[in-house]
Amino acid sequence: MPTVAPRPLRGTPELLAALGHAPGCIELSKQGSISSCDCAIAPLEDPAIVVGMVIRLVRMVRPIGASLPDVVVELLFRQLLAREPACWVIADWLVDLGLLDSQILPDARRPK
Ligand SMILES: [Zn+2]
Question: Residues with Cβ within 5 Å of ion ligand 1?
Answer without folding.
Answer: 21, 25, 37, 39
